[in-house]
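agent: user wants the structure for Siderophore-interacting FAD-binding domain-containing protein from Brevibacterium aurantiacum. delegating to structure tool.
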Amino acid sequence: MAKRGFNGVLMRTFGAQDHIATVIDKEYLTPKYLRIRLVSPTLFDEAESGPAVYLRFWFPDPDGSGVEHQRGYTIVEANEDTGEFTIDVVLHEPSGPASTLRLPSNSGHPS
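agent: tool returned. relaying tokens verbatim.
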């Protein structure tokens, strides 16, 4: 069972729901700026898309401890009918938990 700590409790208190998103495409806009297209069949049943709408993602700690870390990303494009949406990610160094999104093997796998 993943450990989300205080942030997890806080998000649940405010009614946040979990949804699984699958990476379907990636494009490097620059060497440190990645555009990621995802799909989630249930996300837009509860959430809306539009200007300044953002999502919170949970990522496993790279050390394998079972702890999850939260990161927020603004939706830059969305299709509520298909459940597809796009986020842009800045790739920091040293890399953190969300850096797993840049790996080519993640395409087609839940994130």
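agent: one observation worth passing along. The chain has a mean pLDDT of 81.
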